[in-house]
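Dear all,

This email documents one entry for the complex benchmark we are building for the journal club exercise. For each entry we list the sequence lines for every component of the assembly. Then comes the predicted three-dimensional structure of the complex as a token string, followed by one or two observations. Please use this as the template for your own entries, and keep the labels exactly as they appear.
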Amino acid sequence: MSMFVETLIGGLLAGTMYSLVAIGFVLIYKASGVFNYAQGSLLLFAALTFVTLTDQGVPAFGAVALTIALLVATAIAIEKLLLRPLTNRSPMTLFMATLGLSYVVEGAAQGIMGSQVRALNLGIDDLPIFLGDIMISQFDLIAAGVALALVVVLSLLFNRTRIGIQLRGVADDTRAALSLGIDINRIWQIVWTVAGLVGLVAGLLWGARQGVQFSLSLVVLKALPVLIIGGFTSIAGAIVGGLIVGAGESLAETYVGPFLGGGITSWFAYALALVFLFIRPAGLFGERQIERV
Amino acid sequence: MSEIDVRAAAEPLDSIGLKAVAGAAAAALVLAAPFLASEYWINAIIVPFLILSLAGLGLNLLTGYAGQISLGAGAFMMVGAYATFSLQLRVPDLPLPLALVVAGIVAGAVGLAFGIPSTRIKGFYLIVSTLAAQFFFEWLFLKFPWFYNGNSSATISLSRGLSFFGLDLNHPHGRYYLTLGIVTLLTLLSFNLVRSQTGRNWMAIRDMDTAAAVIGVPIVRAKLQAFAVSSFILGIAGALWAFAYLGSASVQSFGLTRSYQILFIIIIGGLGTIRGAYLGAAFVSLLPLALDWLFQYVFSGRVDAGLLQNIQKAIFGILIVWFLIKEPEGLSRLLGLRRANGGRRSLFPSSLKEN
């Protein structure tokens, strides 16, 4: 029993990481209807920039500030060079454009800052904590706390500030928002910046775990099933979806994996997402009925 | 009869004659290519180019013609390659060409299975299904030694090499002609297919699925057909990639990067055109060479391979975005090979948002 609980908790904590990445997607999807494949590369880019700066001797605070400045510049460039020329094109075209964008960001980031694995120390010790006979990783616990704090900040931003309300307006009805004088291009820039910041947080946490390297950008592939399960349009959905995928993966690996030779985490989330697609295509928290033929 | 009439009547004849001559010249060039190009060019550039064209063609039938996006091209290639390996190993009596066909059918059946979700969902929800195929087969073919016959390096290669009904093809020319023959055959097949009722059904679904359903296109059947045919071609392309080009392949030869590469080929070449696959594949094969040469020339080898790879990646990304923005119909239209039919087609119109 304690093994079950331990596996479950470990999975849930890992799931908060998936949630963090998925939140970045939801933000952009809500505001511009773009399924942003480049979220993973932005995450890598942010983490890599931070590590490179601290390696050069820049203090952590300054490195964060510089990284954020760079993320803002990137968001503005993406909006001007990619989103604006592709206005009114099909979501599929936009998706493929972000696929191209991910190549640009990854190529440029690794070309300039190197592609070797970089160690990142955030000063959090990874000591196990024991609750009775259940072992929990302290690092995972802190990461989950950070994810929770981020969600609270984001929901305050969206519900209490003027920009947040504008953003929800754009998400609800783009045309109505435009006719009310909301500057949609600026909203896009802001959303991509915020998504970049979420990526920075996620990238630093993941990077501290497994080193800052190319595989960080592949986390985007874990976020897709999370979104299918939780629904593309809901931050709450992204969190719940992340937890379900995290817990499901770790339970499946422990209890089903041995019968299949192990290593099933690579596709388990996708199998789960497919099941959800058949049962509840809009996801657990999705607003819109998805298109069917 | 006036002079003008005579000229008008004579002109088509001339152009037909001209086309025939040009076609014959092109065919002669293609057939004689092994004697004109160096062995390096055949092994490292022309053969992979042909196979990538074939893979692009396969994906183009699904994505460009039927409008179903797939990120799992690599998975279906993988199935074709591993099926060929298994057949050659376990059914030694089956000659290679038949083994390729059977492997293609296996890949087609797998494609059909992973296409079933497309009857209920569409758009990027469908990406999940094809990505599931990608990850599942990468895992499957690596996890169970049966698939690679317990080989210590987990790679597959044909122990008896390539042969065509007794004809030994284990040399650059043999590999070239084998690839060329299969690619030509499947291209002709696709050419006819997209002009048949099946192909027109696919395009109707791509352009507007609701309208297609209303006029009586069997949506479910047509979509599944597209998945099956596309995977059939991809499977054969995968087998050629593994055994005619690489010689020995592993799961990594058909990873996610390969799937993206095939998708990029058809975006750059032109979605929904047969020649687009060839143009895209030529571009994808030649660009890295051109960049290599350029960097050799400009920096005389002072740029290391890792950096070059990243620069290539970034340039590819920029080109993808550029094509999507400026020329959604790809090189095919850019080169003026497409009949001017007025106005640009928008890609995937049926997935356009309502608002």
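Observations: The CA atoms of residues 74 and 193 of chain A lie 8 Å apart. Residues 2-116+126-214 of chain A form one domain.
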